[in-house]
C-alpha cells in the first residue's frame, strides 16, 4: 500500500471509480443485504434470485460483478498507458510494470487457494489470478496492436475461436447420453475446457460435482475469452480517452455499443448455438456481460462526467479507488470482524431484519475504512 498524491491527476474519470465501487458494493454486503430485505418484507423473490450465481447455464445479475470489474480494468488501461508514455517510460519499463501487475494479482489469488497453509491440493486459479492473466493478455494485445480495427478483429477472432472449440469438440470421456442432452458439449461433464483442467492440474481445482468430478470456474483455459472481455473494455477506454468526440456523443456511443454487444450475443446464442455459461466464459456470456458493462459505463459516465451529478458517488467512490483492498478485506473477513465488533448490539436485536442489518453494517464498516484511506490518499496499487 502506498500514498498516491497523483491518483486523481492521471486522466482517470470519476465515473470509473464510482462504477467500480458500485460493482464492489454487491460483494461487500450489498447482495446479501438485498436478499435480507426481500426476506424481511416477504417480497420480490425474483430480485433475491438475481443476487445469487446461476448453477451453470444462464445469467443473473450476480454473474455480472466479476466481468464488469474486468471490463473496467480494461477501460483504465488506455489512460494508464498514456500516462506512462507521457512520463517517458520505455517499452521495457511498461512491459515490466504490466508483468508485475499480472504476477502480483496471480500470487494474491493463489494465497487464498490454500498454498499458504501448505495444502497439497491448493487451488491454482482464482478470481484475482484470472483477472491478472486475462487483463495481461489483453494489455499486451492492445500495446502491440496499434490499429483499433485490428484490435476489434482480434476480439472477434478470440470469441469465434473459443466458440468453435466448445461447439465442435468435447471431452473424450464424455458419455453419448450427455452429449445428446440439451447442453451437448457445453455441459459440466462434457465440455473440453473442464476436461483440459482435469488433465493438466487435476488436484488444484475448486468445485466438486457429484462423486469425484471437479471443475474450475476460473479456468486457465478460459483466459483467452477473459482477455477478449478485457480488450472490449480497453476499446471503451479508447473511446472515452478520445478528444475528437464530445462527452455526450461518447455516452451515446457507449450505449450503442451495449446494444451491438447484446445483438451479437443473441447471434452467438440463437444462430451459432452457443450456450451462456459463466464458469466457461462462453462467447455469448462475454458479449451479454459486455452489453451490461457498456450500458452501466454509459449511464455512470453520462450522469457523473457529462451532467456533473456526482455528489451521490460518495457512497461508492472510495471503495472504487481501493477495489483490490476491499476485495482482500472481504476475503480475509476483516470487514466482518470490524462490523461485529462495532455493531454487535445491532446484529443481536435486529429480529427479522437481521440479515439486512448485518450486511448493511458490513458495507458501512468497509466504506468507513476505505473513506479514511481515500482521505489520506492511501491506495493498494498492483
Question: Topology of this protein?
Answer:
Layout: E1 2-3, H1 14-41, H2 45-50, H3 65-86, H4 91-111, H5 127-144, H6 148-168, H7 176-179, H8 192-200, E2 207-209, E3 213-215, H9 223-241, H10 247-270, H11 283-306, H12 317-321, H13 323-332, H14 334-342, H15 344-348, H16 354-375, E4 378-379
Antiparallel strand pairs: 1-4, 2-3
Number of continuous helical runs = 16
Largest sheet, if any? Answer: 2 strands, antiparallel
What is the radius of gyration computed over CA atoms, rounded to a whole number of angstroms?
21 Å
Q: SS-based structural class?
A: mainly alpha
The general outline is: globular
**Total strands:** 4
Strand content: under 5%
Mean pLDDT: 93
Report the end-to-end length measured between terminal Cα atoms: 9 Å
Element pattern in H and E: EHHHHHHHHEEHHHHHHHHE
Q: How many structural domains?
A: 1
Strand order of the largest sheet: 1-4
Low-confidence stretches: 4-10
Helical fraction: 55-70%
